[in-house]
Amino acid sequence: MIKPKALLLDLDGTLLESEKLWFIAEQRLMGSYGHSWTVQDQRHCIGGPLSRVADYMELHINGAQPASIIGAELLREVGSLFASEPIEWRPGAQALVMQAHKLQIPTVIVTASMRVLLDSVMARMSETVGDFTLSVAGDEVRKSKPHPEPYLNAAAGVGVPIDQCLAIEDSHTGTLSAVNAGAKVIAVAHMQPVEVPGAVLLKTLEGQDVESLWMLANM
Fold first, then answer.
1. Residue 89: which of 9, 176, 167 has the closest Cα?
2. C-alpha span between 151 and 137 (Å, rounded)
3. Cβ neighbours of residue 39 closer than 8 Å, sequence gap 6 or more
4. Mean pLDDT value of segment 21-48
5. Is 218 helix (H, G, I), strand (E, B) or coil?
6. Within 13 A of 159's CA, how many CA atoms are on the CB side?
7. Are 57 and 25 in contact (CB under 8 A)?
8. How many other CB atoms are there within 10 angstroms of residue 159's CB atom?
9. Dist. CA 50–CA 135, nearest whole Å
10. Where are the alpha helices (DSSP H) in the chain?
11. Arithmetic mean of pLDDT, 179-183
C-alpha cells in the first residue's frame, strides 16, 4: 500500500463537528455584553487562533472589554461545552483515524485551539479511536495558522519529512498553513470556502481511506 508516513489533522471542523459549539459559546459571550454574534462573524474567525477571535470580539463590542479577558472568557465557555456535550465526528473522520492507527501511521492533531482545551477533548476522542501520536496546540507555537510553523513542528515532532505527510484541513487559514509548510494537503471545506493552490478539495472524507487520500493529494 502506498501511504503517507504521517497524518496531520486539524481538529475543529475537520475531525470534530465542533464549530457549532464554538458558535454557541461565542453567541453566549457576546450576548452577555449585549451584542449579537452572527454566522458571518463566526466564519470571519474560523481557523483561529484564539487571540485573533478575541481581538475581533473586542472590536465587536467597541472595546468594552480587553481582548485578553474576552479570550479567557471564551475559553471557559467553550471548554464547558466540550466537557458536557457529546463528541460528534465529521463524516469519515473517525474511520480514517482508526485506519491510520491500525496501519501504525503516526497521527498528529494540529490545531489553533489552546492546550488546556485540546487535552480535554483529546481524552474523550481517544476513548473511541485510541491515542494520537502527538498534538500541536495554538499556544505552543510562536506563529499560528496561516503560518506554516504548526505543521512544520508537527512533522518534526514525529520525525517525518513534511512532504511525506498528509495534512487534512477544513478552513482557508489552516489549508494555507499546511500548503506553505510543504505537506500534501486535502481540504474539506466546512463553513467557509477554501481556495488555496496546492490543496486538493473534497466535499467529504466519507468513502475515502488513507491510500485514496494520499493518491489524490499526489496527483
1. 9
2. 11
3. 23, 191
4. 88
5. coil
6. 1
7. no
8. 9
9. 17
10. 19-32, 39-45, 50-60, 67-84, 93-102, 115-129, 149-157, 172-181, 210-217
11. 98
Q: What is the mean pLDDT of residues 145-169?
A: 98
Residue % of the chain over a pLDDT of 90: 70
Q: 109, 124 in Cβ contact below 8 A?
A: no
pTM of the model as a whole: 0.84
CA distance 136 to 181: 14
Q: What count of other Cβ atoms lies within 10 Å of the Cβ of residue 84?
A: 8
Three cell numbers, residue 95:
474511520
pLDDT, position 1? 61
Mean pLDDT of the region 18-39: 90
Amino acid sitting at position 45: C
SS3 state at 146: coil
Q: Is residue 157's pLDDT more than 90?
A: yes
Q: What is the pLDDT of residues 48-65, one digit of tens each?
A: 678 888 999 999 899 889
CB of 126 within 8 A of CB of 26? Answer: no
Q: For residue 90, give the amino acid letter.
A: R
Q: Are 107 and 124 in contact (CB under 8 A)?
A: no
